[in-house]
Amino acid sequence: MIKKLIHLKVKIKSMTAFIENVFSEKTKKLSERIIINIAIFSFVVHLILILLNNFGVFGDQYESSGFFSSPIAAIYTPFSFILLYEVYLLIYYLPKSMTIYIGKQYEIIMLIVIRRLYKDLSQLELSNNWFSIQEDLQFTYDLLATIILFILIHLFYKMNKNRVRKLLKLTETRPEIIRFIQIKKVIALILVPLFLVMAIYAFGIWAYATLINPSEITDLANINNLFFDEFFTVLILVDVLLLLFSFTHTDKFNKVIRNSGFVISTILVKLSFGTEGLLNSVLIITAVGFGVLILWIHMMFEKNKIPTNY
Question: Which of these, 285, 265, 16, lies nearest to 143 by C-alpha position?
Answer without folding.
Answer: 285
